[in-house]
Amino acid sequence: MSAHPDPWPAPTASAPVAADVTVPGSKSVTNRALVLAALAAEPGWLRRPLRSRDSALMAQGLRALGAGIEEGVGPDGTGEAWRVIPAALRGPATVDVGNAGTVMRFLPPVAALASGDVRFDGDPRSHERPLHGVIGALRALGARIDDAGRGALPLTVHGGGALDGGRVEVDASSSSQFISALLLSAPRFNQGLELRHTGRTLPSMPHIRMTVDMLRAAGAQVTTPDDSGEPNVWRVAPGALLGRDLVIEPDLSNAQPFLAAALITGGRVTVADWPARTTQPGDALREIFTAMGGSYELTPKGLTFTGTGTVHGIDIDLSEVGELTPGIAAVAALADSPSTLRGVAHLRLHETDRLAALTKEINALGGDVTETADGLRIRPRPLRGGVFHTYDDHRMATAGAVIGLAVEGVEVENVATTAKTLPDFPAMWAALLGERD
Ligand SMILES: O=C(O)C1=C[C@@H](OP(=O)(O)O)[C@@H](O)[C@H](O)C1
Ligand SMILES: C=C(OP(=O)(O)O)C(=O)O
After folding, report:
1. What is the ipTM of this complex?
2. Where in 122-220 does DSSP place strands (E)?
3. Residue 250: what pLDDT?
4. Omega before residue 187 within 30° of 0, cis
5. Local confidence band at 4 (pLDDT 50, 70, 90 cut-offs)
6. DSSP notation for 398-428
7. What are 265-317's pLDDT values in tens digits?
8. Are 46 and 33 in contact, with CB atoms under 8 Å apart?
């Protein structure tokens, strides 16, 4: 990957885009697959894993706890793959979570199963992101954790080599990852887990379904509220997990800027290998961007999205698909009518305060965005060039690039932050526009 100027001049589209795009593996699937493979009773493979900062941190954290994760080619000799060899989990170990929600939430339960002390720390922002649900639940299930009373990072898990498990209550209204974290390790708890969510709201349900689907595919017995009719209760039976040979789906949330490019420029983009059935929230983009003025066709080759060049505003509850908000806000700022994005108050505690950041940066380009209690109101106005700040948030960077397609002179500060989940973004973007990186 070449070094990029900072700020990075976002290319404008001089013509409708027409491109085939292959996006790397899903962050959410890769990091769940790594955890489940490390907890399994036998080795497994991840094929076409995401290689990015967040997945490297997850792999490194699991290695620190004793798991073997080898880079290589898949069992059929083709393509990149990771071989995961589970081993006894042990400290002392140090885990750097960076600013990866999946690492900071999914690994403390794994550490509670290890014997020895496991220290967790990360980027300054990781100290501000909610973790209290995981810490409180693990304590209630028998773990010893020293967080100096902060309810957040940094902290040390004093792993006892096993965890009783059993019943626990968690308020996961600030992050669905609290629930995913506890479910993923639960087959290894002595009594399994009965988890009750006590909050009024619960974001990102597709990500919880992803957790349940992947647990089941690894042989775990899981009961969801849909199965039992008991709202907000998940149960996981104790039992061994299978090692899998898993092909990771492309990251549909990272397909978003490319689909947005087709929508905005009146062009056409085909994203290869779009899964026919998936729990990824990015699958909702087909319908959301259709409502905003485009159309799509799903074929065995992938998803082809076509725009007309006219973008309509949208009034939509994004609570299930919160991570799509920055990209939708960028498109909405270029629409022919206002938009209201609702149900995403928890985005204030993501990589950055995304509601404040989007408001500030779009308005700095001449836009008219206001924050509401749980989202954004966006009134499109003619935009002008300027520096688009990204606050170490990969989705702010891609949002700035999307606006830059239609607005001359947009410069994205720290485009390298896209390495969190999409390290090749600047080169992929240049290829989309037929330019050299
Ligand atoms: O479990 C996951 O892989 C994710 C869950 C969501 O987190 P929140 O529920 O905290 O929004 C999502 O925003 C994040 O990008 C990935
Ligand atoms: C919220 C996100 O990430 P994280 O996994 O760090 O929570 C995201 O990728 O939009």
Report:
1. 0.99
2. 144-146, 155-160, 166-170, 193-197
3. 98
4. no
5. confident
6. HHHHHHHHHSTTEEETTGGGGGGT-TTHHHH
7. 999 999 999 999 999 999 999 999 999 999 999 998 999 999 998 999 999 99
8. yes
Report CA-CA distances (Å) from 305 to 133, 263, 281, 295: 39, 8, 17, 6
Confidence at residue 1, expressed as pLDDT on a 0 to 100 scale: 46
- pLDDT greater at residue 437 or residue 145: 145
Indicate whether 436 pLDDT > 60.
no
Which residue's CA is minimally distant from atom 4 of ligand 2?
101
For the segment 177-207, what is each residue's pLDDT rounded down to a tens digit? 999 999 999 999 999 999 999 999 999 999 9
CATH superfamily of 8-24+250-432: Enolpyruvate transferase domain (3.65.10.10)
Q: Is 323 in the pocket of ligand 2 (CB under 6 A)?
A: yes
Cβ-based neighbour number of residue 161 at 10 Å: 13
Per DSSP bridges, beta strands 44-47 and 245-247 are: parallel
Q: Is the dihedral of CA 132, 94, 185, 248 positive or negative?
A: positive
Query: Does ligand 2 lie within 6 Å of residue 147's CB atom?
Result: no
Spell out the residues 6+ positions from residue 92 whose beta carbon is closer than 8 angstroms to its own. 116, 117, 118, 119
DSSP state of 25: B
Q: Which residues line ligand 1 (CB under 6 A)?
A: 28, 101-102, 175-177, 180, 203-204, 207, 322-323, 346
Of 345, 358, 327, 390, which Cα lies nearest the Cα of 125?
Answer: 390
Tokens of residue 202, six digits: 């619960």
Tens digits of residue pLDDT in 349-399? 999 999 999 999 999 999 999 999 999 999 999 999 999 999 999 999 999
Provide CATH 3.65.10.10 ranges for the chain: 8-24+250-432, 27-247
- Atom of ligand 1 minimally distant from the CA of 28: 3
For tokens 């985005």, the residue is 347
H-run or E-run covering 108: helix 101-112
CATH architecture of 27-247: Alpha-beta prism (3.65)
List the Cα angle 301/302/304 in 5-degree steps: 115
Q: Which residues are catalytic?
A: 323
Decide if 105 contacts 130 (C-beta within 8 A): no
The answer to whether the CB of 350 is under 6 A from ligand 2 is yes
- Distance (Å, whole) CA 98 – CA 102: 10
99 contacts 420 by C-beta, under 8 angstroms: yes
- The yes-or-no verdict on residue 6 having pLDDT over 60 is yes
Handedness of CA 272, 23, 34, 298 (dihedral sign): negative
Looking at all shown ligands, the one closest to residue 392's CA atom is 2
